[in-house]
C-alpha cells in the first residue's frame, strides 16, 4: 500500500490543513424521530469539543411543532461548556429565528436560504424572492448584534423538487450575501445532487467573488458521492467542510434525504492525504457509539475504533 506522502503527489496540490465544522447536533439530531434529552445533547457536544472540534452547530431556531428535536435550543445553549477558541453556532431560517438566536446568547449564527423556490416553500413556507430578502435583513440584524455570521445556500447543486439550479442563481445569492458582509459562505448539497463536475464548475467563479471570505461545503452522501465530492472540493481550493458524527442527518423536508458526510470518515480521508484536521477520530467515534446505544441502531459511518479504516 502506498503511503499518503507518495499518493499526494498524484493529485493536484492539497491544503496542509482543513477546518471541520461539526453539524451533527443540529442537522443530525433534527432528523431523528426520537427526541434526544438535553442532558445527552450536552454530553455529546462536550465530547465533540474534547475531540478537538473548534466549531459546532448546536441547534436550529425553528418552530418546535415542525422540528420538535430543536425545541430546547435556548436551554441547550445556556448549558454548554465554554472554552477559549470554541465556537457554537445556531441555524436560522427566518426573522423570528434570528431574534431567538440573539436572545440565546450565541456568538455565531448561520443564516440559511434555499436556492430552490419549491424547496424554500417546503422548508420555510416562503417563496425564494421573499426568503432572499429576509436573508439579507437577517444578516444585517445579526451583524448589528455583534454576531459572527455564516450564510448558507441550500440546494446549491440541484433540487429533487425543482431539478437543476442555474449557476447564475447561486452566484447571485452568494453576491448578495457577500455584499451584506458575511464572515463565511456555505454551499449546501441539501438533496444530494452534487458531483465532482458541478463542484469543479462552480468553485472557481465563486472563489473569485468571495475573495478572502472562506467557502465551506455542506455535503450529503445520498448517492455515495460524499467523500468523492470532498476530493473534488479539495482540488478546487476548499478548506472548510461541514460534517456530522456517524454520518447522521438529512433534511426532514426532503423525501429520501441521506445523512451528512461522516466526521470520522472525513477525518480518515483527510489524514490519508496528509491533511491535518486537529480532530481525534476515535473520540468522535465514541460520541457516535454513545448515540447508537441511545437510539439502539447503527449509523452509516465506516470508520470505527479498531476498524483500521473499514
The number of domains? 1
Structural classification: alpha/beta
Q: Strand sequence of the main sheet, in spatial order?
A: 1-2-3-4-5-6-7-8
| Poorly predicted segments | 1-10
Mind telling me which CATH architecture this is?
A: Alpha-Beta Barrel
Profile the largest sheet.
8 strands, parallel, barrel
E-strand count: 8
What is the arithmetic mean of pLDDT? 91
H and E string: HEHHEHEHEHHEHEHEHEHH
Q: What fold name stands as the CATH topology?
A: TIM Barrel
> How much helicity do the residues have?
40-55%
CATH class bucket = Alpha Beta
- What is the radius of gyration computed over CA atoms, rounded to a whole number of angstroms? 18 Å
What distance lies between the first and last C-alpha atoms, to the nearest angstrom? 15 Å
Count of DSSP-assigned helices: 12
User: What characteristic shape results from the CA principal axes?
Assistant: globular
CATH superfamily: Aldolase class I
Beta fraction:
5-15%
Protein model, in words:
The structure is a single chain. The chain is α/β, with parallel strands linked by helices and 310 residues long. It has one domain: TIM Barrel, CATH 3.20.20. 41% of the residues lie in helices and 14% in strands. The protein is built from twelve helices and eight strands. An eight-stranded parallel β-barrel has the order 1-2-3-4-5-6-7-8, surrounded by six helices. 48% of the residues are buried.
